[in-house]
Write a structure and sequence with these properties.
177 residues; alpha+beta; 3-stranded antiparallel beta sheet; 41% helix; elongated
Length: 177
């Protein structure tokens, strides 16, 4: 007979603890037939009070304003555009062989674009002083012409003012990767 009181005592302790934390209603769900009917709310809910005129006017003015895209690219968009631009030009570039005794020549090209992505102007900013590197500079200018016109992705087209002129660095060590 001693076995019976311990489980019952444990159950009572669990029930009291659960009722204290979760509430009596959560512990023992009542059968719907034993629950008194709760009156149902009216079909129409009462209207909330009207906001003051100043707040209503402010809401109306903000709702009527169309959402405009940002005027400038974010830094993440700018980085994405630059990465796309470099990847596109590297795909078009076939670097010429550099002489083994020459320094590495990194060509810089200043590019101007039309809104459709076509090239309007390309200028080599740092022409090589070593005549052995002239083929490298010519290969860079040929790459720029081979990629013309650029298929500018749609997400960057609204920001033409930010990408209409760019300076690209053509590094043969980056192209070799």
């Amino acid at each position: 007979m001693r076995i019976l009181p311990r489980p019952i005592g444990a159950l009572i302790l669990i029930a009291v603890t659960a009722a204290a934390y979760g509430g009596y209603d959560r512990l023992w769900h009542r059968h719907p037939s034993r629950v008194a009917e709760v009156p149902k709310p009216a079909a129409e809910s009462p209207m909330p009070p009207a906001p003051p005129a100043a707040i209503a006017a402010a809401r109306a003015s903000t709702e009527a304003t169309p959402v405009e895209p940002p005027a400038h690219m974010t830094s993440a968009q700018q980085a994405g555009f630059d990465a796309w631009l470099i990847k596109t030009y590297l795909a078009c570039w076939k670097p010429a062989r550099q002489p083994g005794d020459a320094d590495v020549y990194v060509a810089q090209v200043r590019l101007a674009y039309n809104p459709d992505g076509s090239l309007s102007k390309a200028k080599l900013v740092n022409p090589p002083s070593d005549p052995a590197l002239i083929p490298q500079a010519k290969s860079v200018l040929a790459a720029v012409q081979n990629c013309n016109p650029l298929p500018v992705p749609a997400q960057y087209r609204p920001f033409y003012e930010q990408w209409k002129t760019k300076t690209i660095h053509f590094d043969p060590q980056v192209a070799a990767r």
